[in-house]
Amino acid sequence: MHINWVIKPFENLTVTELYAVLRLRSEVFVVEQNCVFLDIDNKDSFSYHLMGFVENELAAYTRLIDAGKVYDYMSIGRVVTSPKYRKSGIGKVLMQVSIEKCYELFDKAPIKIGAQLYLKKFYESFGFIQSSDVYDEDGIDHIEMIKNV
Q1: Could you list the residue range(s) of the whole structural domain that residue 16 is in?
Q2: β-strand partners of 77
Q3: Which helix (H) or strand (E) holds 46?
Q4: Structural Rg of the chain based on CA atoms
């Protein structure tokens, strides 16, 4: 499977790309996870958007944010893969590329994430370490995690 990775600041997204991003995030975070929350949270405008396309279809996505905008550290958020491409390994590649792009864009420094608790081991495989107690976010248990350099 060939993945075409595209990264853009918000203002450079095409209407088609923005629609695909918001649709995938809504499909997974709102519908699949049965979580009523406002996904459009005013953070997209100062983020970089990493999109992985398979045959012109958005298969994987993350939002990358510089330090000082949300956390004291740079961050990776809205980590999502299309249900159609799960079990293909694309999630692992997505995180590897996201980490690399953070270092390229913002310098090699710690990265912070807010992770769903059930994905703790997945993120630990990339060097993230739990840095908070479990907290409820929109009815789902989360933890904060940091990847040090």
Answers
A1: 4-108
A2: 63
A3: none
A4: 14
SS3 call for 2: coil
Secondary structure of 36-80 in HEC code, one letter for each residue = CCCCCCCCHHHCEEEEEEECCEEEEEEEEECCCCCCCCEEEEEEE
Tokens, residue 120: 């703790």
- For residue 116, the cross-strand partners are 142
pLDDT per position as a tens digit, 84-129: 999 999 999 999 999 999 999 999 999 999 999 999 999 999 999 9
Q: What is the CATH number of the domain that holds 48?
A: 3.40.630.30
Helix (H, G, I), strand (E, B) or coil at 140: strand
Domain membership flag for residue 147: no
Residue 74 lies in a domain: yes
Q: Is residue 138 part of a domain?
A: no
pTM: 0.94
pLDDT tens column, 11-58: 999 999 999 999 999 999 888 787 777 788 999 999 999 999 999 999
Q: What pLDDT is stored for residue 37 in this prediction?
A: 74
Tally of domains in the chain: 1
